[in-house]
Amino acid sequence: MPLGNGTRIARIDFNPAIAGNTRRLPMPSTPALYTGLSGLQSNQNRLNVIGNNIANVNTTAFKSTRMLFESMFSRTQSLGTGPSGRIGGINPQQVGNGSTVAGTQRNFSNGALTATGIATDMAIEGDGFFITQLNGERLFTRDGSFLTNENNQLVTSSGAYVMGYGVDDNYRIEYGELEPIVIPLGQMTVAEATENIYFTGNLNASGELPVTGSIHSTTPFFNEPTGNQAMTGLEDLTQVGTNLYMDDGNGGFELSIEGGAMATITVDNVEKGGQDLGTFSFTFCTPEEAAANDIEYFGSTMADFAAALDQFLGLDNSDVAGENLGGSILLNANGSMIIFGNEGTAQGLDISTSDFTVSYMGTPTGT
After folding, report:
1. What pLDDT is recorded for position 308?
2. Whole-angstrom Cα distance, residue 180 to residue 162?
3. What is the pLDDT of residue 3?
4. Is residue 264 scored above 70 in pLDDT?
5. How far is CA 179 from CA 129, 158, 182, 321, in A?
6. Which 3-state string (H, E, C) describes 253-312?
7. Contact, 353 vs 267, CB < 8 A?
8. Quick one: which H or E segment has residue 161?
9. I need a surface site. Which of 92, 111, 241, 315 has the fewest CB within 10 A?
């Protein structure tokens, strides 16, 4: 094609259909692509691990795993220099090469236990494994989906024997070599009562020393305001005219109970071993009145109240190894009520007459 100054240039027509008219330009490789690719490969492996965890969500005793990553070695493009009299030093130039898989880690924490209703199914709560044996090889598993074979031997779903210690003719465990566990189904044995129980352990030398049982006593109750006739504990307080008065020691009454008026004694703020026991209420009424008013603890006498309070406080008066534990409530001859707590710091009672209040059908009248 001629130009204005007489110069000609050649024209090249590009035709994709003609071979040889195309030209591929080489793409220079760059470490950035390989660095990014390493991250893709690492996360692909992580997705594989997650997929395996999801696929085994209903597999008995399956333990999930997680992927662990680590950084690959960096490339050093230039070394650093230390400080000198003229310059303060130069840091080295390093470029990372991406990430790689460091490994996988299995999570051995306990899963949820599920009741199957199958007598041979078992589970381990805490650390440990079932020991099994297959083709002479010792294996360990957390899968307790067991069944019995034709010889009544306990086996896994893959046919491995479940191993354990045997017992002698007296059903004592024979420690030594492990052997396949046999469930003697259909065999007749004579049941024998347990004769001895052995317990071993160490006491904490820094623990608190046991304490004797606490003793709490109320001021005397009287049948009349003059304070001359002490309560016997058998007065029928469901009857009109049968009243009780607790002396406050100063010529007055700390607490009074009017008979025949459905009086309720409420005990609150009582602690045992430092723990609040909650609220306890006892009403002096007949069984018919209790049923009509949905009353749980009721009776007619202070002896009935003492028995119910004994139950609420959890006092133990049983005999152990020939010794009485001593927890009880006593109605004294002078009309007072004495509470004997059990021994031990955890049994210590914190109770006083100020924790007692009296009300009539829910209306408080004082302490």
Report:
1. 92
2. 6
3. 47
4. yes
5. 16, 18, 9, 40
6. EEEEECCCCCEEEEECCCEECCEECCCEEEEECCHHHHHHCCCCCEECCHHHHHHHHHHH
7. no
8. strand 161-167
9. 241
Q: Is 299 exposed, middle or buried (0-12, 13-18, 19+ CB in 10 A)?
A: buried
Cα dihedral 133, 134, 140, 146, rounded to 10, equals -80
Domain ranges of the chain: 119-203, 215-366
Residue 54 pLDDT > 90, yes or no? Answer: yes
Query: Per residue in 169-214, pLDDT tens?
Result: 777 888 888 999 988 877 767 777 888 888 888 877 776 655 567 7
Residue 297 pLDDT > 90, yes or no? yes
Q: How is 52-120 classified by DSSP, letter by letter?
A: HHHHTTTSTT---EEEEEEEPPPEEEE--B---SS---B--EEE---EEEEEEEE------------TT
The residue that leads in pLDDT, 72 or 148, is 148
Span 159-174, average pLDDT? 86
d(CA 335, CA 232): 6
